[in-house]
């Protein structure tokens, strides 16, 4: 974990002391993703094992469809008051100790506010992983139904006909600028919520004419708590263990999907995301590198201006270092060379600009009250800090709506201009140096938009199932997708009828491109990155996606991908190639029904003719295509029961694919673990062989005579060595390196059918391979980094050059017969690289099916 030294020295040295590197459970596995906020919240591997919840349950696939637009409810004016269900009182809510409003008290407070003020409307707009309601508060002057319809029409015109909207003087005056305030997305950064409540109460009851004028020209949308599970539990992630502020381009979690829909529907011109804790209060804009797909000239102008306004408001509260322990505001763009960037669109304020926000900020309130401080500080001190933090959050909100009020027409015009450039297909604009003070060459990042992306149908598509998922994901992000009515040519390539087309002449082309372009290798340009630097959906989600530079096609817009499931007309056994996570789900569903499946070469399962009806249901349900099996035979496959010492995202992904997963850890094994219901042990986090008791080791050794092992990362590599499994030497690349890599795949049981690209975080590779070890996937001899950030260390080691041609994923049978697969890549990272999930599934199927059988090569 590397942090910007400038910020470190001033602001967070105390925070770092709480969790020094040496305190990590397993020094062999450097903690990969840095924690934004410098949060020392539960990091990736700490969230890991031991979650008893949902152990062994099958998770139904989540349909990636836009929910019914219950909101905004057309035909209604404002207020739109609904009485919120009030949850039972929970004395264990972590907010209570801080003197803040616990989750269960939010609904009563909001119900009361609706009763008192016709400026306040509240509705439930989503639910958390654990099923808690998410509350949207809209504060605006009352509107008749006709006025609300007019606002909706103007919003749609800004997006869909920006050139005419730009010329419409009446629109500029009459359109109420939408502002979005997001609070508490990290559950243990509480006071954003309390700042929102205070703001809403003030605006609801104020008799100030300036407030009346504000509410006649704006709609203020407040997500009261973006992470109700985390607020109650006093933890950073949601109830599934996911950091929601890393999830926006993946949208694996219901909270993220609800926020995505909210931003699409409300189209805010400005947004603030309230976090903690950095002292002095940190207010974006950010350092470089800057996201290359934003209209950055419009963005930086407004974001910097509002940042300065928030700074003045926060400093104006009068808190001082001497008196209160509060340092002055810092603005990374102005105050630091790098280390707090807006490169990946995984964070709320870095996602909102694609839906038209031209001022968008993370705000880190100052005084730490979470983690060790929550446990150790006296209650009075915690409450003193939380009161100050609430003041700061409210000041940032007030400054933002004041800013929008004062620049109302300009902000609306700039949002229109974002969509106009996209619709017109203009080239990316290079931002003029000095557009704001300090904007230099180091701040200039641009990209090239292709004319369109084609997601081919037919033989040019590596997975129709994956293509359908990607299309649905794009549509869920409000990206327009069309489907070709007949075949068309681009240059020498003919694309068949039914191919999907993402025309880049569209209002949200930035969002389309940030997901579909390969990305950039930014290693040469910056020393350190905050979080991930590569994510391309085109390269990691398993579908073939091709940029084209011309487009002549007759195509229709689609609202959802076409069905992809099929079963052949021929009778006889059916083959299912496990090349996509949906195929894994289908296979696990069949296995759960007791269908007698066999596992053949090249990652293909064979289903007997007698199970045809079940196969047809699975084909429809998961969108997978069965083909006639050339031959039956192969190894009998049963449901794979996994004991997993893994991070939260890996547990989630394994369960999502329908595997039966029991979380384990060093502690769980030392407590006496019953191995009799385990087929494969997955090790990536929280299991240290050296710390196992003699009894636990004996039990593990007994398991290894009958069970398989799949490992990932440094913890997995260490476990392999300590348990005496495969003969390999693990080599660690630089721990903060991450991104999309080019690879070469084998035709083995794990490698066959893999995409040519993979994702790495703290990349690893394997040398000194014993004769029993096969290479399933290797880093390409060229690159191998395609996009991301990966440098060699100070000694020239651990860089991408060293990884060239080296084994990234290996398999083999150890002396006891255990089938072992080792990943040096990150195939399930944050549930994102969907195209890589089936590699893990194939590793599990192969390992469970051949372990204990006679030793053959995989
Ligand atoms: Zn945060």
Overview of this structure, please?
The strands form seven sheets. Strands 22, 23, 24, 25, 27, 28, 30, 31, 32 and 33 form a ten-stranded mixed β-sheet that branches. A seven-stranded mixed β-sheet has the order 1-2-4-3-5-9-6, with helices on both faces. With 858 residues, it is an alpha+beta fold. Zinc ion (ZN) is lined by residues 37, 39, 186, 189, 275.
Short précis:
By secondary structure, the chain is of the alpha+beta class. Helix 6 packs across helix 15 (379-406) and helix 20 packs antiparallel against helix 21 (612-622). Zinc ion (ZN) binds at residues 37, 39, 186, 189, 275.
SS-based class: alpha+beta
Report the span from N to C terminus.
37 Å
Provide the helix percentage. 25-40%
Number of strands: 33
Mean pLDDT: 91
Sketch the major β-sheet. 10 strands, mixed
Strand proportion, as a percent range, falls in 15-25%
What Rg, in angstroms, do the CA atoms define?
A: 27 Å
Low-confidence segments: 1-72, 854-858
- Name the overall outline: globular
Bound molecules: zinc ion
Number of helices: 27
Strand and helix layout:
Layout: H1 5-18, H2 103-116, E1 120-127, E2 133-139, H3 145-160, H4 162-167, H5 169-174, E3 177-183, H6 191-205, H7 209-217, E4 218-223, H8 228-233, H9 254-266, E5 270-276, E6 282-283, E7 287-290, H10 296-315, H11 321-324, H12 332-335, E8 341-342, H13 348-351, E9 359-365, H14 371-376, H15 379-406, H16 408-424, E10 452-455, H17 464-476, E11 482-484, E12 488-490, E13 493-495, E14 500-503, H18 509-516, H19 537-540, E15 546-548, E16 555-557, E17 574-577, H20 581-592, E18 597-599, E19 604-607, H21 612-622, E20 627-628, E21 635-637, E22 641-645, H22 648-656, E23 660-663, H23 666-670, E24 680-683, H24 694-704, E25 708-712, H25 713-722, E26 729-732, E27 738-745, E28 757-761, E29 764-767, E30 773-779, E31 785-789, H26 800-803, E32 807-813, E33 819-823, H27 837-850
Helix pairs in contact: 6-15, 10-15, 20-21
Bound molecules: zinc ion.
């Amino acid at each position: 974990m590397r942090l910007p030294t400038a910020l470190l020295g001033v602001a967070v040295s105390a925070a770092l002391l709480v969790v020094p590197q040496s305190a990590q459970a397993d020094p062999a596995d450097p903690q990969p993703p840095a924690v934004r906020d410098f949060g020392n919240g539960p990091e990736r591997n700490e969230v890991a094992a031991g979650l008893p919840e949902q152990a062994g349950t099958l998770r139904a696939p989540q349909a990636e469809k836009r929910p019914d637009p219950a909101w905004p409810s057309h035909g209604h004016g404002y207020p739109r008051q609904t009485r919120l269900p009030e949850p039972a009182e929970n004395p264990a809510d972590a907010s209570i100790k801080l003197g803040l409003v616990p989750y269960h008290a939010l609904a009563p407070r909001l119900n009361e506010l609706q009763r008192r003020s016709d400026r306040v409307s509240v509705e439930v707009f989503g639910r958390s992983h654990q099923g808690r309601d998410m509350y949207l508060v809209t504060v605006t002057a009352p509107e008749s139904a006709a006025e609300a319809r007019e606002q909706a029409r103007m919003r749609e015109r800004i997006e869909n006909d920006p050139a005419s909207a730009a010329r419409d003087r009446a629109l500029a005056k009459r359109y109420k600028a939408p502002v979005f305030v997001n609070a508490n997305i990290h559950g243990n950064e509480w006071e954003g919520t309390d700042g929102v409540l205070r703001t809403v109460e003030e605006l609801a009851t104020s008799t100030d004419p300036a407030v009346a004028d504000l509410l006649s020209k704006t709609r203020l949308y407040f997500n009261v708590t973006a992470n109700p599970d985390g607020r109650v539990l006093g933890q950073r992630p949601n109830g599934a263990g996911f950091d929601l502020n890393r999830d926006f381009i993946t949208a694996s979690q219901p909270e993220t999907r609800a926020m995505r829909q909210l931003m699409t529907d409300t189209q805010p011109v400005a947004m603030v995301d309230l976090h903690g804790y950095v002292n002095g209060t940190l207010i974006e804009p950010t350092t470089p590198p800057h996201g290359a797909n934003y209209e950055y000239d419009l963005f930086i102008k407004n974001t910097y201006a509002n940042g300065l306004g928030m700074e003045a408001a926060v400093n104006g509260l009068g808190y001082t270092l001497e008196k209160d322990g509060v340092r002055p505001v810092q603005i990374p763009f102005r105050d630091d060379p790098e280390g707090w960037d807006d490169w990946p669109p995984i964070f709320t304020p870095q996602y909102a600009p694609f839906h038209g926000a031209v001022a968008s900020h993370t705000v880190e309130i100052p005084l730490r009250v979470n983690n060790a401080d929550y446990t150790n500080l006296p209650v009075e001190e915690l409450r003193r800090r939380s009161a100050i933090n609430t003041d700061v959050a409210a000041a940032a909100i007030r400054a933002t709506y004041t800013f929008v009020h004062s620049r109302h027409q300009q902000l609306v015009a700039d949002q229109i201009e974002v969509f106009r450039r996209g619709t017109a297909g203009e080239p990316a604009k290079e931002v003029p140096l000095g557009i704001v003070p300090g904007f230099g060459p180091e701040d200039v990042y641009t990209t090239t938009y292709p004319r369109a992306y084609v997601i081919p149908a037919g033989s040019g598509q590596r997975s129709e199932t994956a293509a359908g998922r990607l299309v649905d994901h794009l549509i869920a992000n409000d990206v327009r997708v069309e489907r070709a009515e007949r075949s068309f040519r681009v240059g020498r390539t003919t694309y068949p009828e039914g191919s999907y087309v993402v025309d880049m002449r569209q209002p949200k082309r930035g969002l389309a491109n940030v997901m579909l372009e390969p990305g950039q290798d930014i290693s040469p340009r910056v020393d350190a990155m905050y979080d991930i630097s590569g994510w391309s959906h085109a390269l990691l989600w398993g579908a073939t996606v091709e940029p084209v530079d011309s487009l002549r096609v007759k195509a229709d817009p689609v609202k959802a991908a076409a069905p992809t499931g099929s079963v052949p007309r021929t009778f006889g056994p059916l083959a299912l190639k496990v090349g996509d996570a949906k195929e894994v789900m289908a296979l696990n569903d069949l296995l759960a029904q007791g269908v007698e499946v066999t596992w053949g070469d090249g990652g293909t399962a064979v289903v007997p003719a007698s199970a045809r009806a079940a196969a047809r249901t699975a084909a429809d349900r998961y969108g997978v295509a069965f083909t006639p099996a050339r031959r039956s035979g192969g190894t009998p496959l049963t449901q794979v029961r996994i004991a997993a010492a893994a991070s939260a995202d890996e547990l989630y992904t394994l369960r999502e694919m329908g595997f039966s997963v029991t979380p384990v850890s060093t502690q769980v094994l030392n407590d006496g673990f019953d191995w009799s219901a385990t087929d494969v042990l997955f090790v990536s986090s929280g299991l240290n062989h050296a710390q196992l008791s003699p009894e636990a080791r004996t039990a593990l050794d007994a398991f290894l005579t009958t069970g398989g092992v799949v490992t990932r990362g440094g913890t997995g590599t260490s476990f392999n060595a300590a348990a005496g499994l495969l003969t390999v030497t693990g080599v660690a690349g630089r721990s903060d390196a991450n991104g999309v890599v080019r690879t070469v795949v084998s035709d083995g049981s794990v490698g066959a059918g893999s995409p040519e690209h993979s994702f790495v975080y703290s990349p690893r590779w394997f040398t000194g391979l014993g004769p029993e070890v096969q290479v399933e996937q290797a880093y390409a001899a060229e690159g191998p980094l395609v996009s991301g950030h990966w440098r060699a260390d100070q000694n020239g080691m651990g860089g991408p050059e060293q990884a060239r041609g080296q084994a990234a994923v290996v398999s083999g049978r150890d002396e006891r017969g255990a089938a072992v697969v080792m990943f040096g890549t990150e195939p399930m990272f944050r549930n994102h690289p969907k195209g890589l999930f089936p590699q893990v599934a194939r590793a599990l199927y192969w390992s469970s099916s051949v372990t204990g059988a006679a030793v053959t090569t995989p």
